[in-house]
Structures are given as C-alpha cells and as structure tokens.
C-alpha cells in the first residue's frame, strides 16, 4: 500500500486539506489544518504532516502531488487581488465600456498604445513611447502587468514586444492575452488578462509555498495543479496562467464527488468558508461553460465547469436589517473571520473587546467587529493611498475593535478597500459562530461566538422589540437563513441549467410558498430530479436540512470534507489547441496559431499544416503539463458559406485535444 501513493492538497479560504490516495485502496488517510494566508506553507505543512502521521508512511511512498485551491475564486468573488497595470494595444478608451472591463479595472492604471493587428495578422505599427514614459513610475505602484493587443490571437508579436520591454524595466510579472485564450473579443480577453495579472502573486505564493515545503520534506516528485475544467496542469503553467485556476477547487470537488459517490447524475453543492459552488453532473461528467466561467460577476474567457459560485459560506458576513417592523437577516457575499476563530487564534485580545462591549451601557455602531492584518508581505501593500496607508499602519497583528479604529464615516470605506486588497480581515459574527453556540461545531472558541451573538441580539427591530429572545434563538435564525439562502442558490443554478434562469428564487412568491410548504387553495411544490451531493467540512451539519427543503435525496459521502483534495489526484492532464486558417483575398490562405503566421496559395496545403500544428502542439503541451502518455483527438469547424454559386472560406478552425494521466515519480521503496 505504501507504493505509488498520491498526495492531494486543497487550499481553501478557511482550511487546507490533505489526503493520501492510492488507486488500489482509495483514500488512505486525510487531515485538515487552518489556511494561513500570511504564510500558506504553514497550513500546507500542518495538513500534510498530519496526514503522513495518520497514514504511518514515509515520504518516499509519495509519487505525485496535486493541488487544488479556491483562493483565486474567493479573491475574485470578494474583489481582492494585487494592483495591476493594463496595457491596451490598438484599443481606445471607449473599449473599456465593453464586457465589464471598466468596472473590473476600477482604479487600476491603464495605458493605450497605437498598434495591433487585423483579423489576418497584418499589423498597424506599434508605438511604445507612452509606455516608456509611464513605466518608471508605474512599476512602483503595481504588482503586475496585463497586456491585451488588438487581434493578438492572430498575431501576438506586439504583445510579446511590450512584454519584453516591461520585464526589462520593471522586472514584474506580465500576462499577455494571447497566452490565455485563442478566442476573439478583445475587451473580454483584456478583462481575463487583467484578472490573471491580479492573481499572479497569490497563486505564485501558493505554489511556491507548497514547493518549498515539499522540498524541505524531501518530497521530490511532480507537482500538478487543478484547472477550472477539472484537468491537471503543471505547477509551472499554473504560475504563468493563474486565471486557469479559478474554479479549481469547485472543479476538483466535482471530480471528487463523482469518485466518492459513484453517482452519474447529481446536483453537487460545495459549501466552504467563503463560497457555495453549485454544478450538475450528467452521465458522470461535469457540464462545461462554453461561454467562459463567470466569477465575481465577470464573464471570463476561461473554459471551466459550468459552476455557479455564490458568496455564501460558513464564514459569511451576517447582515441584520433592523429597520423594518421585523428584523431581517441576510448572509454574504463577504467573508469575515469568525469571532470563534479569531479568539482561537488571538485568545484574550478578542474576548476582552467583546466582553467590554457587551457590558457597556449603550450599544456602539461597530460593536462585535474587529480588524486585524492578514499578514501578507509588505510589498503586496504597494500603491496605497495616503489615507489607506494611515489606517493600515494603525491595524496590527492583534485584532483591534472597529469602534476604536473608525472615527469617521469615510474611514469605513477606506477600511473596505484594505479588505478588498486582501490586506485586512474583519472579525465578526458568522454562521460558523452560530453553529458553535448551537453545539453543532466545536473546533474553535465557543465563548467568543456566544459573546458575539449576545451583542447582536441586543439590537431592536422597528417595533422596539429585541430581534431575538436569546443568543441561541438568534443562532437558529442565522442557520435557518443559511439553509434558505443555500436552497435558493442551488435552485437558481439548476433553473439556469434548465433554461429557466429568468425565475429568481429569491423573489418568486411561488418558490417562496413551495419552500415554506405553505398551505393554500393552490398547492406549490418543487424538487430536484436527482440527488443533492453535499460537500465541504460543514456539509453534514447544513445539507440534510437543505436537501429536505428542496425535496431531494441527500448524498453526503464520508469524505465530503476532503472531496476537493480527492478530486485533485484522480483527474487527468488535458491540453486543447486551436489553429486558424483565414483568407484575406481570393487564393491566399493564412495559418495562425501554435507558431508563426504562414501564407499559402493552396487551401488543402494550408489545412494540412493547420491540422499537424494543432495535433503536435496539443501533445507537446500535454507532455509539458506532466502527462505521461497523452493521446490526441482532433476535430475541425469550417465556415465556408455559399457565395455566387461557390463556397468561399471565411474561417477554418482546427482543434486538437490531448489527454493522459499525470507522470508519477518511480521511487525506491
């Protein structure tokens, strides 16, 4: 059993999971440790050391390491990430208004350069003078760069030249749009590239932390990372294209769900600390989103599982609206550090603040909330505005009461920006705290959770009545709200898959009556046509009630808490390459993709070159990504409409996909 063990690691927003897996025995051992965002290697080390200890095996038994993560997904959902400079070649300011690019850009800097290419790869001269003028200053204000060129997927030359110039001057990470997608649509490709650039430092730290730990422990084996479509890529590729790891964790959970339950058809819902991810298994395979993954409200060009991600989890913000006659509770989308976890990490510093606030004669606006640095390296705080820097300097590594930190309304917005940058945690009441008070969770500090609920329960609704008669009653209201919101997001995802996305379960009266089982002359009911697979560490405590509300069979596997880590080691390496043939004028055929542009006067010769290029590059990429013996399949899509009695080629696309199991280390013993 100790030969060819595979080590799966999943780094989530709250926990880092590790499993040891063998194809013969399945899950050999599993373990968890808190994700340590200030130094990810600590959480990775804690989980891996624990799983090795439980399995009682030497490190020499490990032949492959595979990593999945929700960090990139969480960052985009929460609006986090490093500050990136965007360089647009051949585009104008008006292009920022398309595909949500302006909204995604926010206050990050953008430079427009003359240049770019046409659909056939012909160029407009590139002028880098504006870049040369801005680079010395800009390099000190951002952590990475994103480059998007007009029709760069047909000719990436200008993107490469700008990339080389930026690297020469700034020595910062640079992402080019042609490296991420072969699809047309400049603004959306620019959006994808921008998000990728923001994630570079985060995924680089994650992969580096994992590699450093493995090296220190003498685990010298191939390391893979799960991509958003469930396939595996090498760690080196993940560092270059971290955007491909968005939905990595959810994709791994789908692969893991299929393996752990054996179900061919299911709705899979994975609840973590930050997000709930919902997808559908059909005939044993996850559905893919052909239009590109949507995360944090932005549609990217990343092919990924058709997974819908919602800002709802065990660590979600609890928002109490006490202005109406009856108070209302809503959860998310922001993740807070649960008070119970904050107290477990920082002890008396948190308990003393909560106790003082509870004893105070008058309730404060920010009672029950504290701020603490996440512990990210100082260079990731570059580019802060003066007011942001001043507030950041006051926040330390020990939680500080917001009531002592925020003295003016504008400072609240400043604090929110620091949270969005991933520099600061807000410690506050969450569903995890409610579960601690109800005795359904016990891993952290229940005393802090109780104090937080007592503080929140003092609030009065519009009729002057307390919003809850006791902390326990408020805890039940919070958990009930999580059950209801979870049911709504699962329904929303399933309705979209059914083509009925216009129905919003959160506002539909019919859905409301069906979920509440309210009697009436007209009887409303609903249910799922397949089992609901609940995944995540807290799935056993949340999902029985959610499945009951949805009139679905609950399927919660014993290894539900580490399904992502299981999925990380049972997947395959897969690489897909597309090569294009276009005709700028009659009798001329241009081949673009997987190499330099080539010009032909014979269509069949051009098609043959395109086919060979696609197949060769797919196999090479799969091998570079760690596939042992990849096999390729190919198909083609030819647009050649009938024109004046003959067919005229508009565009031909030659696609090859190569896949295989990852290469493992053959080690002694």
Output the keywords.
six-stranded mixed beta sheet; 669 residues
Structure, described:
The mean pLDDT is 89. The strands form 9 sheets. Strands 3-2-1-4-9-10 form a 6-stranded mixed β-sheet, with helices on both faces. Helix 2 (71-77) crosses helix 6. The chain starts with a strand and ends in a 9-residue tail after the last strand. By secondary structure, it is of the alpha/beta class. The chain is built from 20 helices and 33 strands. The radius of gyration is 26 Å and the shape is globular.
Number of strands: 33
Q: Report the end-to-end length measured between terminal Cα atoms.
A: 11 Å
- Tell me the major beta sheet: 6 strands, mixed
The percentage of residues in β strands lies in 15-25%
If helices are DSSP runs of H or I spanning 4 or more residues, what is the number of helices? 20
Q: TL;DR?
A:
The chain is 36% helix and 23% strand. It is of the alpha/beta class.
What is the secondary structure topology, with strand pairs?
Layout: E1 5-11, E2 15-22, E3 26-34, H1 40-55, E4 62-69, H2 71-77, E5 84-89, H3 101-105, E6 110-113, H4 129-138, E7 144-149, H5 157-170, E8 174-176, H6 186-216, E9 223-226, E10 232-234, H7 235-240, H8 248-261, E11 266-271, E12 276-282, E13 285-286, E14 288-289, E15 294-295, E16 298-299, E17 304-305, E18 308-310, E19 316-321, E20 328-335, E21 337-338, H9 339-346, H10 348-359, E22 370-373, H11 386-394, E23 400-401, H12 402-405, H13 409-420, E24 424-428, H14 431-437, H15 446-457, H16 471-497, H17 509-516, E25 532-535, H18 539-549, E26 554-555, H19 563-570, E27 573-582, E28 589-592, E29 598-600, H20 603-624, E30 631-639, E31 642-643, E32 646-647, E33 651-660
């Amino acid at each position: 059993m100790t030969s060819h063990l595979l080590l799966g690691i999943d780094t989530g927003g709250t926990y880092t999971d590790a499993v040891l897996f063998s194809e013969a025995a399945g899950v050999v051992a599993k373990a968890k440790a808190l994700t340590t965002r200030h130094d990810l290697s600590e959480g990775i080390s804690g989980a891996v050391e624990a799983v090795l200890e439980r399995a009682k095996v030497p490190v020499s038994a490990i032949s492959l390491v595979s990593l999945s993560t929700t960090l990139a997904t969480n960052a985009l959902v929460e609006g986090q990430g490093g500050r990136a400079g965007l360089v647009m070649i051949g585009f104008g300011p008006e292009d920022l208004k398309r595909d949500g690019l302006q909204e995604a850009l926010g206050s990050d800097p953008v430079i427009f350069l003359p240049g770019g290419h046409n659909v056939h790869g012909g160029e407009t001269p590139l002028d880098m003078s504006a870049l040369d003028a801005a680079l010395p200053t800009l390099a000190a204000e951002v952590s990475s760069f994103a480059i998007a060129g007009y029709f760069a997927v047909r000719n990436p030359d200008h993107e490469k030249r700008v990339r080389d110039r930026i690297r020469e001057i700034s020595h910062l990470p640079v992402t080019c749009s042609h490296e991420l997608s072969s699809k047309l649509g400049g603004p959306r490709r620019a959006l994808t590239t921008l998000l990728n650039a923001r994630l570079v430092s985060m995924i680089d730290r994650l992969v580096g932390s994992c590699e450093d730990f493995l090296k220190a422990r003498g685990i010298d084996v191939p390391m893979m990372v799960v991509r958003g479509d469930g396939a595996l890529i090498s760690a080196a590729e993940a560092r270059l294209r971290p955007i491909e790891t968005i939905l990595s964790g959810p994709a791994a959970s789908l692969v893991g769900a299929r393996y752990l339950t054996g179900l061919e058809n299911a709705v899979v819902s994975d609840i973590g600390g930050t997000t709930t991810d919902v997808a559908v298994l059909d005939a044993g395979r996850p559905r893919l989103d052909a239009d590109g993954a949507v995360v944090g409200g932005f549609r990217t060009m990343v092919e990924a599982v058709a997974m819908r991600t919602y800002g709802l989890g065990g660590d979600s913000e609890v928002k109490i609206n006490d202005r109406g006659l009856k108070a209302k509770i809503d959860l998310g989308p922001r993740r807070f550090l649960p008070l119970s976890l904050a107290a477990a990490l920082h002890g008396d510093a948190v308990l003393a603040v909560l106790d003082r606030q509870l004893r105070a004669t008058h309730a404060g606006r920010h009672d029950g909330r504290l701020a603490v640095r996440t512990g990210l390296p100082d260079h990731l705080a570059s580019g802060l505005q003066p007011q942001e820097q001043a507030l950041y300097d006051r926040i330390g590594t020990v939680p500080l009461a917001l009531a002592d930190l925020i003295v003016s309304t504008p400072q609240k917005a400043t604090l929110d920006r620091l949270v969005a940058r991933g520099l600061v945690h807000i410690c506050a009441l969450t569903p995890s705290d409610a579960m601690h008070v109800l005795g359904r969770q016990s891993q952290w500090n229940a005393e802090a959770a109780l104090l937080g609920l007592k503080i929140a329960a003092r609030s009065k609704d519009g009729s002057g009545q307390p919003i809850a008669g006791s902390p326990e009653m408020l805890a039940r209201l919070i958990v009930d709200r999580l059950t209801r919101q979870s049911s709504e997001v699962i329904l929303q995802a399933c309705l979209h898959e059914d083509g009925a996305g216009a129905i919003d379960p959160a506002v539909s009266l019919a859905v409301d009556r069906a979920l509440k089982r309210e009697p009436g002359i007209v009887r409303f009911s609903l249910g799922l046509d397949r089992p609901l697979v609940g995944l995540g560490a807290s799935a056993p405590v949340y999902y029985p009630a959610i499945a009951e509300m949805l009139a679905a069979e609950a399927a919660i596997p014993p290894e539900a808490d580490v399904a992502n880590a299981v999925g990380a080691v049972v997947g395959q390496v897969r690489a897909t390459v597309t090569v294009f043939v276009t005709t700028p004028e009659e009798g001329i055929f241009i081949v673009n993709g997987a190499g330099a542009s080539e010009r032909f006067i014979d269509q069949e010769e051009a098609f043959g070159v395109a086919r060979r290029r696609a197949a060769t590059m797919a196999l090479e990429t799969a091998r570079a990504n760690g596939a042992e013996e990849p096999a390729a399949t190919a198909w083609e899509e030819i647009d050649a409409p009938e024109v004046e009695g003959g067919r005229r080629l508009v565009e031909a696309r030659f696609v090859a996909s190569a896949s295989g199991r990852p290469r493992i280390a053959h080690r002694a013993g």
